[in-house]
Amino acid sequence: MRKDKSEQHNNEIEHFDEEPILEDIRASLQKMDDAYPVTTPELSWFEHMIEVEQLQLKKKFRKDLLIFFSCVLIIIGLVIITLIQAPLIFLFLQVMVTCFIPIYVYLQQKNSEKII
Length: 116
Description:
mainly alpha; 4 helices; 0% strand
């Protein structure tokens, strides 16, 4: 009985006509295309947008470069002042940083192993 129902269902699917549904879909899509026309912007609009974007990128690059060089000058200035004014403090800081880096790297690796 069950086999007969599945065979009957398969026969119905085979005889099912898809054309009317496809025609309805095509007609609906055509109505949408007609209702909402698609226009491509002019080439000058794209060129203007590119120019504006390039100007913004140049401004951002200059700002970032100015910040970078300002930080570099401040750091180098502090290092030179510390070296000239208090060489013992400078050497102490150099030794502390040199000792701290391997410890920091070891702790970071240890923490990343715990996460995994």
